[in-house]
């Protein structure tokens, strides 16, 4: 087990494309860190650099206190689980799990002992003689985990290991990987583009965008105090609603819309006063918007909105709305899909809500949950 | 009426596949099956083709060729020629495919090499035979180079000496045939996921271990298929040997195809030639059955 430290790591490709720019990250011994971000943000590149599968252009990379920048992958004492699992189709489960031991020249008896132990932990004992083609997605995933575990590495690196599984199995494997990591206590760096995985699995989450680290924090703090509009939009599903408005006195004004701010909002964010008379970006999560006709929404101030469409999920309703405000793009390419053509806001309503598509409603909002960002820099105020 | 319609539809569905297949079956029957059956019939007749009413000869012609030492020499030469060709086609094809698939070679050089390596495939057997006859002439380029670098002391008559002729034609055939393996294996190599090698790198595999544990097992279906096909094709090679050595000197490059040709068109013993052709057919058939069984097993 070991600490993984990245200092000023840069990765530039031949065409002058900066995949990673000045990445500083410290993963503590035994910690489960999630690297998350939209497609092309450099998260997989960062992981592959830690594994030694990509060269580091500049910066320092230490695993267990040893500088590994110029070390080949095999000497870094890491194990990796690939998105495709990279299981050898011509080998049985036993041979796949024991492959690294075979390469290291370990005897068959030694290999059998260790592989049997791993198989027992992962409930693969009955499948040891099967070939990967005869396994289900979840079983293959476990074999890939077994192959990583067999070497007792200092750190696990996982590159979107659940992305090939169906939604139900993904939830199950999420829990299995988390509990396995806790049980083994091995430093783990896990790459995903799925923010639900990021929020539910990691001790801390590092959010990347365009090769630049945006924020590293616990899932709760990322959700509650995003450092910028990108993190605010990226974390949470559906994404946070972001709008532009003018701060007039203690009111946010946008078109016919007026949202009154409590004094507490200014106390919590002393910088907000300086935006008086100026434009500001405000954000509110879909779960902080309510149907004003229901009990849950009665205590909050309301704004007019038009329902454009509704997604019934049984436990909740995702309501797409149009409000009189200019929506701000958080910079997350995946967030665009949350909004239809006619809508610019999303709310999560209770299943008892009776709002109908096309109706004009009063939308209640919890102003204590508003987030504020600078309109130019998109940094949190 | 409805029942009648239904049975008509059933009949149409049953007959349709045979109708679709009939043109190809007809062509195969006329161009392959009929000549094959005719040759088998000739092999049991006396003075086949030459006489209008040939008499039944039984196994006489088979007895004759099995008693002929030249037949056994031809069979041995065919096996040597075929085995060496297939082994070296595969080895050279694999080496070149690995080279062309390597990231370590400059992409421009790789493209140039790709064209160069595939060149032998562009030539017909006649051209290849002529090229190698010129190159391996006593006064040819090969002798001149080998003498200059001191490998041989005097001119070697590659195609005219019984000691070297079989090796020389085998060499020419190896040169002509490796691109098939190279192209097939290169396609196979490009289909092996990069992840396999990266996972092996992390697990500490050396280059030769990656070759043994990943590359070769992944290419095995291609290696077996192409080797079997190459074996079948090489066994039947005729023009290259006919043009370079004609089966000589003193039968030293006689293979089953040239042996049969000579029986038919030099000695005009078409019955015995047919018996020899049937023997070749049986050997090829054995290999083909093996190939089909392997393909089915996959």
From TrEMBL, chain A:
> Where is the ABC transporter domain positioned along the sequence?
4-235
A Gene Ontology molecular function term for this protein is: ABC-type transporter activity
What InterPro entries does this protein's entry cite?
A: AAA+_ATPase, ABC_transporter-like_ATP-bd, ABC_transporter-like_CS, ABC_transpr_MalK-like, ABC_transpr_MalK/UgpC-like, Mo/tungstate-bd_C_term_dom, NA-bd_OB-fold, OB_MalK-like
Q: What CDD domains does this protein's entry cite?
A: ABC_MalK_N
> Sorted alphabetically, which Pfam families does this protein's record hold?
ABC_tran, OB_MalK
**Keyword line:** ATP-binding, Nucleotide-binding, Transport
Q: Which terms in the GO cellular component ontology are assigned?
A: ATP-binding cassette (ABC) transporter complex, substrate-binding subunit-containing
Q: Name one GO biological process term.
A: carbohydrate transport
Q: Where in the cell is it found?
A: Cell inner membrane
Q: Which SMART domains match?
A: AAA
Q: What protein name applies here?
A: Carbohydrate ABC transporter ATP-binding protein (CUT1 family)
UniProtKB/TrEMBL annotation, chain B:
One of the protein's GO biological processes: transmembrane transport
Indicate the segments forming the ABC transmembrane type-1 domain, all copies: 75-291
Look up the domain of life of the source. Bacteria
**Swiss-Prot/TrEMBL keywords:** Cell membrane, Membrane, Transmembrane, Transmembrane helix, Transport
According to Swiss-Prot or TrEMBL, what is its membrane topology? Multi-pass membrane protein
**Record InterPro entries:** ABC_transporter_permease, MetI-like, MetI-like_sf
- Record carries keyword Disulfide bond: no
Q: Does the keyword Cell wall biogenesis/degradation apply?
A: no
Per the record, the coiled-coil ranges are none
Q: Which residues cross the membrane?
A: 20-44, 79-100, 112-135, 171-192, 212-233, 273-292
Q: What coarse category fits the chief subcellular location reported for this protein? A: membrane
Q: PROSITE patterns, alphabetically?
A: ABC_TM1
Gene3D superfamilies documented for this protein = MetI-like
Q: Which GO terms describe its cellular component?
A: plasma membrane
The residues the entry assigns to the signal sequence are none
Give its localization: Cell membrane
Family from the record: Belongs to the binding-protein-dependent transport system permease family.
Protein name from the UniProt record:
Carbohydrate ABC transporter membrane protein 1 (CUT1 family)
Question: What is the originating organism of this protein?
Answer: Rhizobium loti (Mesorhizobium loti)
């Amino acid at each position: 087990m070991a600490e993984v430290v990245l200092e000023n790591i840069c990765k530039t490709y031949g065409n002058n494309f900066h995949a990673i720019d000045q990445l500083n990250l410290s993963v503590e011994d035994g910690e489960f860190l999630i690297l998350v971000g939209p497609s092309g943000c450099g998260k997989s590149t960062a992981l592959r650099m830690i594994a030694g599968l990509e060269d580091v252009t500049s910066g320092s990379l230490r695993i267990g206190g040893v500088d590994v920048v110029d070390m080949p992958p095999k000497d870094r004492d890491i194990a990796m689980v690939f998105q495709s699992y990279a299981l050898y189709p011509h080998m049985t489960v036993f041979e796949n799990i024991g492959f690294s031991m075979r390469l290291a020249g370990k005897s068959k008896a030694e290999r059998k002992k260790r592989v049997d132990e791993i198989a027992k932990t992962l409930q693969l004992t009955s499948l040891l003689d099967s070939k990967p083609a005869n396994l289900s997605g979840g079983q293959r995933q476990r074999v890939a985990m077994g192959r990583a575990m067999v070497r007792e590495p200092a750190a696990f690196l996982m590159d979107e290991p659940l992305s090939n599984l169906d939604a139900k199995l993904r939830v199950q494997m999420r829990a299995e990987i988390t509990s396995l990591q806790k049980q083994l206590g091995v430093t783990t760096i896990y790459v995903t583009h799925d923010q639900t995985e990021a929020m539910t699995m990691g001790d801390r989450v590092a959010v990347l965008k365009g090769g630049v680290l945006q924020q590293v924090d616990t899932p709760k703090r990322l959700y509650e105090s995003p450092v910028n509009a990108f993190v605010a939009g990226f974390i949470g599903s559906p994404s946070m609603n972001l709008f532009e408005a003018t701060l007039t006195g203690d009111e946010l004004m946008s078109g016919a819309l007026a949202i009154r701010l409590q004094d507490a909002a200014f106390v919590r964010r002393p910088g907000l006063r300086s935006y008086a008379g100026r434009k500001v970006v405000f954000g509110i999560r879909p779960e902080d918007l309510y149907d004003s006709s229901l009990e849950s929404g009665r205590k909050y101030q309301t704004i007019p909105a038009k329902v454009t469409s509704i997604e019934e999920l049984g436990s909740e309703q995702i309501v797409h709305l149009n409000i009189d405000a200019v929506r701000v793009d958080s910079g997350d390419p995946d967030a665009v899909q949350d909004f239809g053509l006619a809508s610019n806001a999303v709310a999560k309503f209770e299943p008892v809500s009776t709002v109908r598509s096309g109706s004009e409603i009063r939308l209640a909002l919890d102003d204590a949950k508003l987030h504020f960002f600078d309109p130019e820099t998109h940094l949190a105020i | 009426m409805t029942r009648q319609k239904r049975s008509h539809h059933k009949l149409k569905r049953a007959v349709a596949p045979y109708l679709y297949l009939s043109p190809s079956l007809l062509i195969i029957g006329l161009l392959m099956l009929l000549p094959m059956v005719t040759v088998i019939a000739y092999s049991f007749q006396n003075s086949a083709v030459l006489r209008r009413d040939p008499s039944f000869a039984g196994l006489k012609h088979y007895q004759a060729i099995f008693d002929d030492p030249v037949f056994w020499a031809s069979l041995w030469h065919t096996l040597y020629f075929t085995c060496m060709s297939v082994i070296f086609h595969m080895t050279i094809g694999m080496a070149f495919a690995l080279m062309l698939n390597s990231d370590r070679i400059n992409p421009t050089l790789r493209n140039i090499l790709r064209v160069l390596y595939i060149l032998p495939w562009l030539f017909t057997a006649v051209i290849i035979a002529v090229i190698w006859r010129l190159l391996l002439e006593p006064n040819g380029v090969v002798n001149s180079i080998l003498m200059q670098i001191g490998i041989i002391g005097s001119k070697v008559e590659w195609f005219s000496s019984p000691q070297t002729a079989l090796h020389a034609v085998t060499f020419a055939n190896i040169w002509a045939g490796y691109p098939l393996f190279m192209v097939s294996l290169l396609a196979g190599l490009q289909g092996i996921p990069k992840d396999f090698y990266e996972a092996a790198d992390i697990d500490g595999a050396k280059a030769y271990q990656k070759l043994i544990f990943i590359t070769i097992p992944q290419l095995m279906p291609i290696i077996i298929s192409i080797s079997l096909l190459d074996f079948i094709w090489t066994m039947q090679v005729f023009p290259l040997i006919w043009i370079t050595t004609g089966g000589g000197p003193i039968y030293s490059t006689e293979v089953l195809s040239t042996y049969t040709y000579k029986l038919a068109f030099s000695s005009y013993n078409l019955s015995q030639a047919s018996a020899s052709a049937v023997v070749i057919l049986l050997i090829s058939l054995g290999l083909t059955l093996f190939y089909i069984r392997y393909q089915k097993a996959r």
